[in-house]
């Protein structure tokens, strides 16, 4: 391997480190921004978790846990109103069908927000991993770029 090829490795590693760090920052900011956007939109709806929910009763729905709790209690109420039958099991003429259908739509919307929270957390986590990996690459590149003390040449007598 030529001396030029060895000397260019730290430069390539530095570029790779910068790219990984940039993507890490982008992912972390995007994930956090998405989380806040979803939370803000949920809060703007001013939905509170039902008082008879298993958890978070009376809380404003603006986190994935509260959205899950509200979706769960909506399902419980819908099943109580339909005699334990789901939307698909109800007869077309059953008056409870419209209520159960609305409950299903509300639950789907809440579960979509839970999914959005999860994806935003995943993207944020990937950003943190990229930042850590990029910093590790940068430190390796700096060490490779540091001058190495010359070894004395031993001559055979």
UniProtKB/TrEMBL annotation:
<keyword id="KW-0812">Transmembrane</keyword>
<protein>
    <recommendedName>
        <fullName>Aromatic ring-opening dioxygenase LigA</fullName>
    </recommendedName>
</protein>
<keyword id="KW-0472">Membrane</keyword>
<feature type="transmembrane region" description="Helical">
    <location>
        <begin position="12"/>
        <end position="38"/>
    </location>
</feature>
<keyword id="KW-1133">Transmembrane helix</keyword>
<feature type="transmembrane region" description="Helical">
    <location>
        <begin position="110"/>
        <end position="134"/>
    </location>
</feature>
């Amino acid at each position: 391997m030529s001396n030029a090829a060895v000397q260019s490795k730290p430069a390539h590693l530095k570029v790779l480190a910068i790219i990984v760090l940039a993507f890490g920052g982008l992912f972390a900011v995007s994930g956090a921004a998405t989380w806040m956007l979803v939370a803000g939109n949920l809060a703007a709806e001013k939905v509170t978790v039902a008082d008879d929910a298993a958890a978070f009763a009376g809380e404003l729905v603006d986190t994935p846990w509260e959205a899950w709790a509200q979706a769960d209690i909506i399902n419980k109420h819908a099943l109580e109103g339909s005699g334990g039958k789901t939307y698909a099991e109800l007869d077309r003429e059953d008056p409870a069908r419209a209520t159960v259908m609305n409950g299903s739509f509300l639950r789907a919307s809440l579960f979509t927000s839970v999914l959005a929270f999860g994806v935003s957390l995943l993207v944020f986590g990937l950003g943190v991993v990229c930042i850590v990996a990029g910093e590790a690459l940068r430190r390796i590149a700096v060490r490779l770029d540091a001058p190495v003390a010359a070894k004395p040449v031993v001559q055979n007598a």
